[in-house]
Amino acid sequence: MIEMQEVYKKYPNGVTAANGIDVKIKQGEFVYVVGPSGAGKSTFIKMMYREEKPTKGNILINGVNIGRLKGSKVPLLRRNIGVVFQDFKLLPTLTVYENVAFALEVIEEQPKYIKKRVMETLDLVGLKHKARMLPTELSGGEQQRVSIARSIVNSPKVMIADEPTGNLDPDTSWEIMNIFEEINTRGTTIVMATHNKEIVNTIRHRVIAIEGGQIVRDEQRGDYGYEN
């Protein structure tokens, strides 16, 4: 599903954030990406959805070398990749329903299908009853649920999450993780960068640890391995 082949990323300021990364992630896997601040986790994640391009090497998503994609093809790539951020990135003037529907409207799905699919997805994340509310009327955890709903409404094969529980209290973080677990059991590949030691050590999955732009540890059912 995801493969990096000898990937390097060097920024104009001279910082090398990826230094010869080789990794394969299979369809349906749930992978945590861990490591100290500044280790290269965010770059690793961003290169998967072409927010950043590698300086050298190949990144394949479902067999497509995304580093060589023309800019005009990137939106098509992202239709098959759901992305969840730490800061939600919701559109503040749109309702919960409209935020989630937007992801289907831009690909010109039929209105009848959009309504059905949006309500199904809001039901999955437990927010069907808040479809008409604005993001400012929701708690942080609820806003993150909307963000997750928006990222999965078009049934992506891959979900990328960058510190999705970083701004949430512990109880809400567990609720969000339960949603991710459910999404994963339905077949979606999940790659999640996180500093949450307790979650990684409790809900065991594959752990990839990055330091200095290199993978220093790759373990099935691994632990966090760092002091927070």
TrEMBL record:
It is found in: Cell membrane. Residues 2-228 form the ABC transporter domain. GO terms for biological process: cell division. The keyword Cell inner membrane does not apply. One of its GO terms (molecular function) is ATP binding. It holds the Pfam family ABC_tran. Keywords: ATP-binding, Cell cycle, Cell division, Cell membrane, Membrane, Nucleotide-binding. Its main location: membrane. It comes from the Bacteria. Signal peptide: none annotated. It is a peripheral membrane protein. Part of the ABC transporter FtsEX involved in cellular division. Belongs to the ABC transporter superfamily. PANTHER family: CELL DIVISION ATP-BINDING PROTEIN FTSE, IMPORT ATP-BINDING PROTEIN. Homodimer. Forms a membrane-associated complex with FtsX. This is Cell division ATP-binding protein FtsE. It comes from Robertmurraya mangrovi. The lineage of its organism: Bacteria, Bacillati, Bacillota, Bacilli, Bacillales. The gene is ftsE.
